[in-house]
Each structure stands twice: as C-alpha cells, then as structure tokens.
C-alpha cells in the first residue's frame, strides 16, 4: 500500500470523526451556524471517499488504453470535491435564509462549542499533514483535500467566535449571518478548486518557476548540442511530461546524439521527480535560433 493511499484512507476516517463531532455540537446547540459547519463536513466525507477511489485508480500502471498512466484521475476527484463544496454552500445559504426569519438562541452553548473546537483542531492537524505530504508526493487529490480542510478550519473558527458572541450577547441575528458568511467563503474555495483542477485536465503548462528549472537543466546538460526548441510541458498528477526538439550538428552520429539525450534526461529526472521526457533530435539545418540555447 502506497503512502498516498494510506493518507487518503486516513482522510476518510478523520472526515467521519469530524462530522460526528460537528453534528453533536449542532444537536446540542441548535445553532444554524454550527449546522452549516456540519454540512461542510458531510462534503468532506464524500470528497475524501472520492479522493480515495481516485488515488487507487491513479496508482495503476500504464496499459494499452492508457499509455500515459492514470494519474489524471486525481484531477477528477478534485473537480468533484469543488462541485460538492459549491452544493454544500448553496444548502447552507438556504438554511441561513430560513433562520433569519425564525432565529433562536443556542442551547447548551458551552459543551457544543467545546466539541466543535475539538473537531476544528482535528481538521487543522490533518490538513497540515496532508499539505506537507501532498507537496512531497505531488498528489493533486491530497493537496485539494488539504486546501478544503484548511478553509473549513478558518470558517469553523469564525463560527465558534460568532456562536459564542450570540450566546453572550443574545443577538440572535448573528447566527444566520455567520452561516451565510460561512457559505460564501466555502463557495469561493470550491470555485477556486474547480478552476485549478480543470486546468490540470486541460493540460496547462507547468508553473513558471518549474519551467525555468527545466530550461536551465536542459541548457547546462546539453553540451555538444546547438539548441532546444518547441519546449512543451504538462502536469498529470505526480508526473511532469516534458517534450522538446534538440538540434545537433549535422555531422554528429546517432550514438553521440543519444549520449547527449541520456545526459539531459538524467539531469531533468534529478531535478524533477516523476519527469517523463521525450526528445526529438534534429540536424542543425532545423535550428530556429530561439528556445533554449546550450551553455
């Protein structure tokens, strides 16, 4: 079992625990703001389960029908999670709208808030772990889950402060107002997640910092070549695909050109974990005098 898969399974367990705690807090208090917080955790459970399925599928090796592997399955999970977040936000807004016209004071506020605070602490600890491991493992599904949980933590802290203020001041209108604010924050988070995940599915180029590292690795390891042009990149989960044309002197033998290609591939793989490289060798007559010049 891979570490990504173990973390995805852990996310399902943590999401179920946090949901149980938040539902308990809402049941004790009757607060619509805490109900909004719990509804987001319902999404967390569904999203964590979807991420688990996607991680299992993305770990499958390439086959005849999927020669580039199955890593993009994680982007589908992230898109689904973003869509579920948006649905949860709309459900929360509906509850908040009804509560504006029939507000009520929270019951058993102290124990409810303590339980909700415990759930928030669990989310924060797990989100921190997921973010660190997701970056190391280059997993879009884990990073999406981490981002969602951290957004959940921020809104949960705001809800805790607000419900405490409602109990202390008796201003009942604060409760549905907090629920509505929570929904809007969740809605923004979900839309951002969908946008980034769709970018992965649409084969966006790697971010500028990584592209610069790729160009430097090619330039400094291609001694004997003339230039590299038509550099194309894309990201698919943990894998980075790099393609370019390498121009070499026309008199160079195939063996000599192959040695240069091997050296470039080794440099790129040392710089970028999970790099898959395709190099098309061309004679100097094909030089375009732009792209990556060999140092």
From TrEMBL:
Record GO biological process: intracellular zinc ion homeostasis
Every Cation efflux protein transmembrane domain range: 11-202
Highest taxon above the source species: Bacteria
Residue intervals passing through the bilayer: 7-28, 34-55, 75-97, 109-129, 149-170
Annotated Gene Ontology cellular component terms: plasma membrane
GO molecular function, one term: zinc efflux antiporter activity
One Pfam short name: ZT_dimer
Membrane topology: Multi-pass membrane protein
Domain Cation efflux protein cytoplasmic: from-to ranges: 213-284
Name under which the protein is recorded: Protein p34
Species of the source: Roseicella frigidaeris
